[in-house]
Write a structure and sequence with these properties.
Blueprint lengths: L5 H11 L6 E5 L5 H7 L4 E6 L2 H10 L6 E5 L11 E7 L8 H9 L2 E10 L8 H9 L1
Parallel strand pairs: 1-2, 1-4, 2-3, 4-5
Length: about 140
């Protein structure tokens, strides 16, 4: 999936423009691909995902690396310290059961002036890439 999503990942990572020393939460980080890319900018990255197997794989990949850590957890209900500069997500936020409550909770993680950068699929009827595949199935 990381390979298929690479062009989209590149675009959203560029939009995020993570900087050295920033504290970033990678929401729905999966196996860590975007977390590692964010950490390469010099940011400190916390990858968060509800999938235990994916976080286990991310931790394996992160062995010996600094500036990146991974946790199993639900970003919508997680307790946060208010010291993060960037909330980032590549298709992770679209799974929130209650998006309004989730974003209110996530807002608690940001410093004043912090930012949120994410990419998310549109509804299937608005997204030809998904709707054509669904029709073929």
């Amino acid at each position: 999936m990381d390979g298929v999503l690479e062009p989209l990942s590149t675009a959203v990572l560029q939009a995020a423009a993570a900087q050295t020393g920033e504290r970033v939460i990678d929401i729905g980080c999966g196996c860590g691909d975007t977390s590692f890319a964010l950490a390469e900018t010099g940011a400190e990255v916390w990858g968060l995902d509800i999938s235990t197997p994916m976080i286990a794989r991310a931790r394996e990949r992160a062995a010996g690396l600094e500036r990146v850590a991974f946790s199993v957890g639900d970003a919508a209900t997680q307790d946060y310290s208010t010291d993060h500069d960037l909330l980032f997500s590549r298709f992770g936020i679209m799974f929130f059961e209650n998006p309004i409550a989730a974003f209110k909770q996530l807002r608690c993680a940001l410093v004043p002036g912090g930012r949120v950068v994410f990419i998310c699929w549109q509804a299937p009827k608005e997204n030809r890439w998904l709707s054509i595949a669904g029709q073929a199935v």
